[in-house]
Amino acid sequence: MKKKKILFVIDSLACAGAEKSLVTLLSLIDYDLYDVDLQLFAYGGELEYLVPKEVHLLPPLNYTHFTSMPLWKTLFTYPPQYILARVSYSTKLRSGKSNNIKKARFFWESVSPVIPPSKKHYDVAVAYAQGVPTFYVSEKVSAIKKYAWVNVSYYLGEEEKKFQLKHYDNMDKIIAVSEKTKEIFLQNQLLKEHRLKVIYDINNPILINKMAENGKGYDDNFNGIRILTIGRIARQKGYDIALEACAILKEMGISFRWYVLGKGPLEKEIMNMIQTLGIEKEMVLLGVTSNPYPYIKQSDLYVQTSRFEGYGIALAEARMLNIPIVTTRFDAVYSQMIEGKNGIVVDMNPKAVAEGIQRLLEQHGLKEQIIAFQKQEKKGNIEEIQKFYELIGV
Asked: Which of 314, 385, 392, 389 is nearest to 25 (CA)?
């Protein structure tokens, strides 16, 4: 039987939620049935080593290679259109304050003219993230069926709606990673509801437990309470809320360390805030690792201070490893959290987060009750792979 040709496109395989989800999906695909290519826009991410050997990791696009070099080195080796595109993008970024949605539009408006169409024709092309992967699949890929994943709470202003409508209209279906993500996407009024389908981010408990047993965890010989937060150091993740909550806990006299696994654009700002609040000993930035699971398993609490999430993969991973959770009430939080059962859901402010942590540590028997509930919860959702197979066909 002839294998179906599938292309996945994502920005990179840095250690983040959508990237983990894709790597897990790729680990479950039946490669006797599918021939899979993977296109990235940035290479060297922490999760690349987890890509199955059966997946063909495509080489960088010429423009991707071009942007990895200092501009002065490219002046006589690349076409002038590449340099103009790069300068155009930089100029747009400097023109005013921009979020990730605008940055993706600025990039594509500047760079798409120098990105050639894909040479291959596919049965299925999957943009596994919003923004550039979706624009690329929409305009540059030839495929019988095209699908775009939406894995965040995707609110669009009027200008962004006009730009993105044509790209989403080129898709056969839009895949949201939770019912709440679907609901929020529909508020943009880009497409009718029948064009959307929900497939939850896939979590494989067997893989996560195996990785939790094999790898480096904490090595600082600290004997107090270990709190962990995982996520990109960006506004979405609410690290400002976490830091102020950390300062409140310190004032309470609790012996703890709060560790962060992540990196991102606000790293310097967060480090300055740590110093300003005087919590250098309590708040520890660990950077990133391709295997965060030993850290999760060795933690006393997992805390998420996100302002918004499409699903919240790190929460699912903490639940699978039976770690009590305190989380803010972001859009999709109740797609997996049951208040007071598998964790505590609090308002989105430092005082509420600190009080939630204090409650979990000091209320007699609560932590043990949550762990007991987590142990009997359904673990993972690898059955979601069947929805993927239904989507793409055999």
From this structure: 385
Q: What is the pLDDT of residues 263-295, one digit of tens each?
A: 999 999 999 999 999 999 999 999 988 899 999
Show the tokens assigned to 253. Answer: 């006299």
The Cα 351–Cα 358 span in angstroms is 10
Distance of CA 230 to the CA centre of its chain: 10
Which string of b and e fits 298-334 if b means at least 16 CB within 10 Å? Answer: ebbbbbbbbbbbbbbbbbbbbbbbbbbbbbbebbbbe
Could you state, in order of their start, the residue ranges of all structural domains in the chain?
Answer: 4-204+383-392, 206-376
Amino acid letter, residue 194? H
Q: Which fold has domain 4-204+383-392?
A: Rossmann fold (3.40.50)
- Output the pLDDT for position 64: 87
> Angle 44-133-237 (CA atoms, 0-180°, nearest 5)?
70
Q: Which residues of the chain have pLDDT under 70?
A: none
Structure token digits, residue 334: 């109740």
Kind and range of the H or E run holding 285:
strand 283-285
206-376: CATH number: 3.40.50.2000
Residue 32 vs residues 92, 185, 219, 237: alpha-carbon distances, Å: 46, 35, 42, 39
Report the C-alpha gap between 319 and 311 in whole angstroms. Answer: 13
Instruction: Report which secondary-structure segment, H or E, holds 21.
Output: helix 17-28
Give dist(CA 254, CA 80) in Å, integer: 60
Cα 175 to Cα 145: distance, rounded to the nearest angstrom = 13
Same fold across 4-204+383-392 and 206-376: yes
